[in-house]
Amino acid sequence: MADPKSGDTPSSDILVRLDKVERHYVMGQTVVRALDGVDLEIKRGEYWAIVGRSGSGKSTLLNLLGCLDRPTGGHYYLGGTSVGELDDDEISEIRGQRIGFIFQSFNLIPQLTVLENLEVPLFYQDIDPAYARQRAVDLATKVGLGERLDHRPLELSGGQQQRVAIARALMNDPLILLADEATGNLDSRTEQEILALLDELHSEGKTIIMVTHGQTVADRARRVLYLRDGKVEQIVKNRESAIHEDAVLEQ
Amino acid sequence: MIRGSTLRTVRLGVKNLMLHPLRSFLTTLGITIGVAAVICMLAVGEGASYEAQQKIKALGSNNILLRSVKPAELETQQQSSMAPQRYGLEYEEVEILRETMPAVRVVVPVRELNKSAAYGEFQVNVPIYGTTEQWMAVSGVKLYEGRFLVEADSRYSLNVCVLGTHTAGELFPFENPIGADILIAKKSFRVVGIYGPRDDSESGALAADGIVIPIESAREYFGELEIRTSAGSREFKMVQLQEIKVQIEGEGDKLEDNVVATAASIRQLLTLLHDQPDYVIDVPLEKLQAAKEQAQIWQIFLGVIASMALVVAGIGIMNVMLATVTERTREIGIRRALGAKRGHIISQFLVETVVLSCAGGLLGVALGIAAPMIVEAASGMKAIFVPSFAVLAFTISAGVGVLFGIYPAWRAAQMDPVEALRHE
Ligand SMILES: Nc1ncnc2c1ncn2[C@@H]1O[C@H](COP(=O)(O)OP(=O)(O)OP(=O)(O)O)[C@@H](O)[C@H]1O
Ligand SMILES: [Mg+2]
Questions:
Q1: Alpha carbon of B394: minimum distance to chain A alpha carbons (Å)
Q2: Does residue B61 sit within a domain?
């Protein structure tokens, strides 16, 4: 199931390694095995989609990858660090420095303006506010919202909100961009725009992992992981992607 | 950097609070009232303390007063013979005090006579004091007209007298009393001066009713024997001096030490000289100290009662903050996902409670400065505002903010990020 070539590549290129990861929820008598022994390796610059039926454990896996949650069994190495052994502050720091989240429901803070929302991630990194502001303006411009800096989220359309959310996820220049059904709340045209934006980010070298329901969406990714009942069913590698990734790796 | 981020956290807190201005204002109101109540109560306590102290100061906190009293055993003992009861302070004790007590400025003997005084058809029954020229210094009075006693008056037992303003008005409604002769128990005394209260203190006003004559004259003309007739029985008593007023020298703390030390020596001396408890020693300063302590306890009590209002206000803040935390669960999840540590979440919410309570505290201080004046105007009760009350009350309010803000903030920080993000 793992990439057969992984043995040949230098280990520093392996960004994410899951080793028999489990996430079990104990609900009184019953145990819900949301993830049940997942092995996975993701390299720098790869573009992954996680597909599966509702309840198959996609969000659980993504939350683990994003260090929002911890495995109840097995090991998760992010860039060589074993996440399960970190304390809450260290894990928060990893989220703040290495992870960018994009959610289905945008999750912008309603009382803050676009600009302020963008500044939130850097606020917790003790980064020079002037730099943070400049970066926020730059990224807002990049996602096409340079004119809406002082608007509040509710004054924007869904697609625009998701663009803000993507810009926010890029603020800390993350190692991995995680998107949980990022286009689930959008119409198909807007979905295409957002996916195009993700493609662009991938071509710039970002590692992207997205959860999706739709096969067409999954086809945009270079690797697709099929989850079923908390287990990896299969991993499919799209052809054209390999060429592209090799190009990225050679840079 | 730390300061910068603190400032930004405060700004964020204020912004969040301003999203619900009415809610924030109402929450703040409790603290405002509490702080104002604390300041007001402390001011009322201070006022009470001030008034008590003023009363005692009027007695002269640099004085020690010795007074003759009839011992209890003489009081109960049936007077069988014509032999007079002898007790009380004596002339020679004045000399002993003058010579043995250090730090004593003056020792003033006072012989009080129970005689009536008359001028023509006008007659008064006022205390007649046989004393020395130093009496004025220890009695809270000053000279209004003419002259006071001089040393020669006593030395030659002159029959001169000085009238209190009030007594002078009663005896001489139409004339200037200076130079006139009045009769005290059929003896003629020439009026040489008029004295009156030094300020509007009570003791001064009291002294305005009275006549002062040289002590030697009192002794010579009227003796020590006093016969009092009451309800058919006769009482004979011999008391040389009704009072000895001792004034202590020194300033401030030095004075206090002197008074305390001298009072102790006088107590010792008098126990040696007297074989019966026929005197009392009154030290206004000791009463002043006791009154101060009393007032302080009272003030603390009032302050603590008023602080209850602050505790109630704190509970109100906590309640609102708990609701706010629940309401903003999703925001907390978002911030956690974006890298906020627990400490960041704690400080964010803690700052909001502290901002609330400090804003309330400031308003309360403003109200608390105005309140004592209102209390004074409305009730006549004296209330004195002291800046340290404001500092104290404000500090307590800020403390309340921290104390009652910790739990909601901690609750916010303990939330599981995944759960918080799922919250609707
Ligand atoms: N906090 C929890 N307590 C108990 N069970 C949970 C909890 N969170 C998730 N689960 C269970 O874990 C399993 C996987 O859930 P998850 O949210 O990962 O599914 P998903 O693949 O994202 O589904 P969807 O496509 O509907 O979002 C489900 O059976 C769910 O009921
Ligand atoms: Mg999901």
A1: 31
A2: no
Model confidence, pTM? 0.73
Pairwise CB contact (< 8 Å): A124 & B340? yes
Give the tens place of pLDDT for each residue, B248-284: 888 777 888 888 889 999 999 989 888 888 899 988 8
Query: Is B389 in contact with B368 (CB distance < 8 Å)?
Result: yes
Please state the domain count of chain B: 2
Contact A77, A94 (CB under 8 A): no
B342/A contact by beta carbon, under 8 A? yes
| Dist CA B282 CA B6 (whole Å) | 60
- Nearest by CB to residue B339, choosing from A97, A103, A107, is A97
- Helix segments in B139-201, DSSP class H: 151-155, 165-171
Within this chain, do residues B296 and B237 fall inside the same structural domain, yes or no?
no
Q: What ipTM describes this predicted complex?
A: 0.90
- Does residue B127 sit in the same domain as residue B194? yes
Q: Do B338 and A111 touch (CB under 8 A)?
A: no
Residues B165, B230 within the same domain: yes
Task: State the DSSP code for B253.
Answer: H
Q: Tell whether B212 and B112 lie within a shared domain.
A: yes
In the reported structure, the alpha carbon of residue A61 is separated from the centroid of ligand 1 by a whole-number distance in angstroms of 10
Tell whether B414 is within 8 A of chain A (Cβ): no
List, in order, residues 6 or more apart from B412 with CB less than 8 Å away.
Answer: B325, B328, B332, B345, B346, B348, B349
Which of B140, B130, B155 lies closest to B200, judged by CA?
Answer: B140
